[in-house]
Every structure is written in C-alpha cells, then in structure tokens.
C-alpha cells in the first residue's frame, strides 16, 4: 500500500501564487481559462485551500464555493512528484468538512485520470457527461446570429445540466436566453452551451460528442 503523506491545511494567500499556479497549470480543466485571473478570483471567494507538507512545501490545492444547491469543487491539483500518496483525498475530505455542505459536485476531464480516480474513491457518482470543443471564441448571441438562430421563449431544455464559466449546474437553474431554430438550441453561457444540435468551428460545450471534442464527467456526492 502506498504511504500517506502527512500534510496540514491553510488558506491560499497571494504569496502562494507561483507555487499554486505551478500545480494548476497541468490541469486539463483549466487549460482554456485565464489562470492568473482565476487565481485572483479564487482568493476573493469561497474556500481556496492548500496542503502543506512537513518541509513547508505546497503539495496540493483545491477551491470550493457554494453554488445554487451544492458545493462546487474545482482546481483540484497535487504536485506531480507526490501523487497517489493520499494528498488529494486528505485535501478533498478536509475541504468538504470545512464547507459543511451536504451536496458536492466536481467536473473532470475524461483524460484526467487522477481526478476521476479521486472522485470515485470518495464515493462520488457520475451524473452527467458533456463535450468541450475548441475553436473560434464568440459569444452566444454572435454564434446565434451566424447560425441563424432566434431568441426562443418557453422552450424545453434537454439534459440534466449545463456548463457556464466552467461550472456545471442543474438545467432547472438556467435563467438566461435560449437561441433556437427548433433543432439547434444554444444557451447564453460562456462558452456557448448546445443543449441540442452542434456546430463545428467554435469554442463550445455540447451534449453531442463531436470530432476532436473532449469529454468532461460531472460527479456528485450527497451526504446525509
């Protein structure tokens, strides 16, 4: 059995920027966002927690914040030289207790094997799977104009949830505009989210797997 590394926990500070960013830069979930701006935002909101080893070295990091009905966990990272030694599990368990939440969610790239393994080891269950494609970065209204979609009213939305600013939310919480032609339905999110249909060449999330798209798995844990 792999040994567990003894760590302590504390909030991330501005002085931790370089050490934390060096851990986060390899996360597929953060490869398409401004990581410096994300670091600054995480400092201001939620729980931005670091794991520190006996040599006072930051070896893990995790951010959590309350969304509508659940605690959203993101930015989970462990130093590459110390993975598979229990640091991620200890860090996640600590943050879950710290938040006092009952429902937790996290989204991991299908190719992020450590994050998927961590979620499953903690008892998380898959609740959704969405597909990200890179391409031209346009807003949802501009994309709708290019595709000939109109703003729709009282339109039904398919699927359990949607992604906005790289956070997953249950579909019943969506309150924004919907652009549609009856077959294609796009939400006014960043990047645009296709709840029905798809369009090549644009940065987007979609319910349909497209050529060269990357699958993201959404996990949920409910505690009594």
From TrEMBL:
InterPro entries associated with the record: Acyl_CoA_acyltransferase (IPR016181), GNAT_dom (IPR000182)
Domain N-acetyltransferase: 7-148
One Pfam family in the UniProt entry: Acetyltransf_1
Top-rank taxon: Archaea
GO molecular function: acyltransferase activity, transferring groups other than amino-acyl groups
Annotated Gene3D superfamilies: 3.40.630.30
Record-given protein name: N-acetyltransferase domain-containing protein
Lineage per the UniProt record: Archaea, Thermoproteota, Thermoprotei, Acidilobales, Acidilobaceae
């Amino acid at each position: 059995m792999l040994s567990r590394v003894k760590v302590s926990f504390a909030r991330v500070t501005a002085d931790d920027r370089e050490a934390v960013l060096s851990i986060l830069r390899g996360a597929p979930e953060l490869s398409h966002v401004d990581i410096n701006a994300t670091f600054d935002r995480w400092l201001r909101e939620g729980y931005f927690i670091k794991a520190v080893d006996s040599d006072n070295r930051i070896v893990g990091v995790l951010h959590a914040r309350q969304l509508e009905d659940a605690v959203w966990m993101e930015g989970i990272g462990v130093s590459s030289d110390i993975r598979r030694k229990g640091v991620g599990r200890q860090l996640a368990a600590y943050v879950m207790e710290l938040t006092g939440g009952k429902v937790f969610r996290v989204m991991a790239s299908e190719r992020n094997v450590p994050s998927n393994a961590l979620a499953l080891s903690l008892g998380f269950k898959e609740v959704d799977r969405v597909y990200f494609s890179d391409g031209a970065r346009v807003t949802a209204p501009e994309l709708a104009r290019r595709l000939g979609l109109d703003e729709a009213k009282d339109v039904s939305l398919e699927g359990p949830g949607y992604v906005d600013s790289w956070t997953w939310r249950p579909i019943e919480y969506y309150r924004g505009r919907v652009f549609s032609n009856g077959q294609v339905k796009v939400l006014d999110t960043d990047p645009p989210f296709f709840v029905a249909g798809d369009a090549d060449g644009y940065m987007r999330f979609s319910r349909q797997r497209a050529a060269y798209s990357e699958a993201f798995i959404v996990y949920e844990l409910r505690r009594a």
